[in-house]
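Sharing a chain and its predicted structure for anyone who wants a worked example. Both blocks are below, sequence first, tokens second.
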Amino acid sequence: MPVLVPEYLNIDFNTLISRLKDEIKDSNTFRDFNYEGSNIAIIIELLAYVGELNTYYINKLAKNAYFDTVEIFENAHRLGRLVGYKPKGYRSGRATVTITIPSGASVSVDDVIRVDAWKEITTTEEYENEAIKYSTTTGNTFTVDSIPYSFNLNTRQGNVTRLTGYYGRDLIDNELVLPIYNYSYDDDNDDDYPTIEVTVDGDVWTRVSDFYDDLSGLYTEDDVYEFRYDRYKRSKIVFSDTRNIPGDSDEISIIVLKSLGVNGSIGAETITTPETQFVYNDTTAAWVDSSTLTVSNSAASIGSADPETVEDIKINAPLVLHTQYRNVTKKDYKTNLETRSDVAVANIWGEQEIAPSGSTSEFNKVHISVIPQSWGTSSIETSASSAGFIVPLNYSNTYRTTLSTFLEPRKMLNAYEYFELPELVYFYFDIGVKIKRTYSYASVLSDLRNKLTYYFSSSNREFNETISFIDITNYILDYTNVSTTDNFTSVKGIQNLIFRDINCSLSIYEPNDDNNYPQYTVTASTYIGDNKLRKIQLGYDQFPMLSLNLSTFTQET
């Protein structure tokens, strides 16, 4: 019969001492020896100490060999790579910038103007006493058709950094490790926001996500490279023997953005000051005076993120392994969308959910709804209701196009996607709290409110959920449920927690098969004579939110 629990897990210092003494007693030499206070006792304790250390490190090695228990980033990264997952580094925010050339500038109608890649624009916001900068990463050319003239540019957060002086002979195992800075990794190689450019002897090479497409015979590029965030948290350029590799004397030049991650996020109307030589007039062969330009961003930046943590890799790597970088099932779509830094939560549904018995109008139709990391004109525009609830209005064209472009190479040929606006369903509660006498009601209430807010955060909730006051109560009273920034320690002072009522921003339907949501999961007659709150089922496009301001908390005695 196999041993399911390794014995070394139970071998600690005291156990080893006891076992060593028992072993020695079986020897004729030491059978009647007095161990206490003797030199041999010191030897026994030394052996036990070494044995416990050995057990500790064996346990650490075993824990870090599997996804479920891994704790060290280096090992989590290695395990992710083994299943084909590429952990992501810093990701810079994206923003669309509008440039306006006024009358009186050195530009005329029909002039051809351009803005080259890697031009910086300074914002009014700072991080660690330095101005946050956004940069163009692709070249753009425009023909002026009127004065004043306005045009849009796609930008990414980051300081433009040029790394030169490298040659093919500097490669080690076809890899070039970059100086230790936080570079923008990018989470989508197919969008209009690249973050790195590599040239070899003046020729721009193409970034790819992997080198395996050469197996299909469909690839058309041999001058390619990968940009990786490795297990030591370094950024490096990787070439492959299956494609072209720079020769020993070939010069390698790199332009890349230094990223601030989430700290580089900026608000609307904060990108203001372009560098001195920003717009070039090809017709007159002269730079346009940057002081005459008006620069604005009507929406806040989106998509910024810090490197993936051990927990992120443990969650994302197995999911991406199952999707195989294609979208066939609901889980595939959800996994691929939620790996993006600008998508917090996604839901996908189709014919089987809408019309299980069949509907020709739903054939091959994939419904998609997402909660963005940040609301606004750069993702999903919103308005506010009279009660202060967020009301999604429409997807921005840029955001919809970005997501569609991201999904296109992964989709089935006969499927087409339809983006549905998320409907936010706000809940607010009437809660009674009785506290233990050694705790302060103010501190308990503060942590209770914070934990309830955390429960309803987008990282913890899903579309199409069932809202249950029992689940919420159990979550709050479970002291092991903590966030990365708050342990909610004063929640331990709750002696009794009572949900007296659950209120909803929408009308709640009785159970039905007509896809009318939100709806109760059981009929009202289920609880005749009892004051019990019924569970509430949300629709496929409905996402739960908390209205803390409308929730009431009463101290029970």
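Comments welcome. Residues 94-158+263-296 form one domain.
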